[in-house]
Design brief:
15 strands, alpha+beta, D-amino Acid Aminotransferase, Chain A, domain 1, single chain, 2 domains, 8 helices, D-amino Acid Aminotransferase, Chain A, domain 2, binds N-(5'-phosphopyridoxyl)-D-alanine
């Protein structure tokens, strides 16, 4: 079945939707995006994603699309029209269409594209098996806190992981893990949950913020600091968070089993809490 997608104020069957070859998102990766999860046909953490979108746009001096205040309504319509029970809504804003030039164009209307993807997030086999992860150098630019569409290096990272018969890659800078290719990274040592502190070096995950809040509410100890590759190998547990995976256990890192080599109790508990809480708050 063909999806209905949203492009610049209009809804189209996906085959009929298009944007200009001069769009700066296409020519310069001059664009930002958000992925909002859907469970039970409802949106998770919508306010958080909207707030981060606003920040990404502002950091790049990119104007907000004129329909910014209608984004919830547009998301809901697409989820309903496409009958998405579980999956996500992808939103991309580009600086707009202008003849190719490094200098930003003036007074250009941003391009806005939104589409849905149905996906079985809850039933991923990785929940039970845990993920195998490799380390790769973090070769991305220095403003990883802005959610731009410059995803070539993360794509290369996932392909390197696949070639090594693994599920994903964690990126490493100066011996310390920054984050996963498309997720935030955590280790558990004793009773401590350790994840890198927020800075320009990592994306400020919406799932990360909620999971850390729930962990603290459940009296777990959270330490926000950089952790080394060696610490991962000797950790009791590891896991990732993102909108498209929630909380997902990591059981192997560069060929070394983490803890028992099975999904750990802290990761499992946090996944349960996250799903329950987000379900209750979904809109
Ligand atoms: N990725 N770090 C990176 C580099 C990411 O690309 C993502 C999200 C995250 C987690 O952020 P959040 O919890 O807000 O989803 C961390 C999305 C899901 C993607 O690119 O599909």
């Amino acid at each position: 079945m063909s999806r209905i997608v949203y492009v610049n104020g209009q809804y189209f069957p996906e085959e009929e939707a298009s944007i200009s070859i001069f769009d700066r998102g296409f020519l310069m990766a001059d664009a930002v995006y958000e992925v909002t999860s859907v469970l039970d046909g409802k949106l998770l953490e919508f306010e958080g994603h909207l707030k981060r979108l606003k920040r990404s746009l502002s950091e790049l001096n990119m104007p907000e699309p004129s329909v910014f205040n209608d984004l919830l309504e547009i998301h809901r319509k697409l989820v309903n029209d496409n009958q998405v029970e579980q999956g996500g809504v992808y939103l991309q804003v580009t600086r707009g269409v202008a003849d190719r030039d490094f200098v930003y164009p003036k007074d250009v209307e941003p391009t806005l594209v939104i589409f849905t993807q149905s996906k079985d997030i809850l039933g991923s086999p990785l929940v039970n098996s845990g993920m195998k992860v490799i380390s790769i150098d973090d070769l991305r630019w220095g403003r990883r806190d802005i959610k731009t569409v410059q995803l070539l290096y993360p794509s290369m990272g996932k392909m390197m992981a696949k070639a090594a018969d693994c599920d994903d890659a964690w990126m490493v800078e100066d011996g310390y893990v920054t984050e996963g290719t498309s997720n935030n990274a955590y280790i558990v040592v004793g009773n401590k949950i350790i994840t890198r502190e927020l800075s320009n070096d990592i994306l400020h995950g919406i799932t990360r913020a909620s999971v850390l809040r729930y962990a603290k509410e459940a009296q777990m100890i959270v330490e926000e600091r950089s952790f080394s590759v060696d610490e991962v190998k000797s950790a009791d547990e590891a896991f990732i968070t993102s909108a498209s995976t929630f909380v997902m256990p990591v059981v192997e890192f560069d060929g070394v089993l983490i803890g028992t080599g099975k999904p750990g109790n802290v990761s499992k508990r946090l996944r349960e809490i996250y799903i329950e809480e987000s379900r209750n708050k979904a809109i």
